[in-house]
Amino acid sequence: MATTEPEKIVVSAHDGHEISLWKKGPANGKPIVLLHGRTWSARPVWDLQVGSPPRDGASYLGANTMDLMASRGWLVFAPDFRGLGGTKRDEEGWTTPNKCVSDVLAVLDYLAKEGHQKPPLVGWSQGALIAQLIAQKHADRISQLVLYGSIFDKDVVYSPPSKEDYNKPPPYIANTMEGAMEDWTVPGIIDDEAAQAFGDEALKWDPRKVSWSKLDEFNACRGEDVHVPTLVIHGEKDTYTSIEKQKELFLSIASMDKAWRIIPGCDHPVHLYPAQRLLWLSSITSFLERDHGKN
Description:
The chain has nine helices and eight strands. By secondary structure, it is an alpha/beta fold. The chain has one domain: Rossmann fold (3-Layer(aba) Sandwich), CATH 3.40.50.1820. An eight-stranded mixed β-sheet has the order 1-2-4-3-5-6-7-8, with helices on both faces. Helix 3 crosses helix 4. The mean pLDDT is 95. Pfam families: Hydrolase_4 (PF12146).
């Protein structure tokens, strides 16, 4: 499957802000929504182009998740949160968990109007916390939940920002190549060309560091309030979490229709690594496709 540019759709948020939504896959494919994490937007995270001409994103050495999923019959949608990728900052300038939840709900509204009701929702890293909040409060909007590399930690309690701090304009902080490279913690797990491509694309789409605030809204994350079918999946050597914390997350989830999958030998961005990304996807699809009449 040749690598292609995703289609860009502009979705109007509930407050009128324009949200960039990237789309790729067969028109009659099974819809799925992917949420990126804290620092990098959808294009470098889910639609990474490696090489010139680009590698086949669905191949063994590809690193393009949208291409890989599209090759397996999925119609993939990936929004950018405010201040990331193709979505501009709003007037306040701050990106907050509740704004992200509202914006994803606007995306789900758009998809429902297009005939894609209740898609599965995949959230990576901090995006997994956004996905979890949606599952807790709006379970009727999604069919299944995938918490991938979630940074959930029941022992972390965020304090709200002061009104004075929130009313200040956020500072300009530039992202760096060093920051883009910090996820690779297992030697040799990604080839140099793919790592460089990620750094280049990350800085192209997200030259300025997004300004998060009101992280105390994440304090509402409670596995006990998740009642949709849920897959918890992460890399064995993920430095942003631990097997023990993932175990706590898994056990806390109220739904008994749940599974926990550890991908061996890799760290946080499992979906970018040659052998592991195939195991990652097969683990996700085997969990999700039960609702599509498959074993």
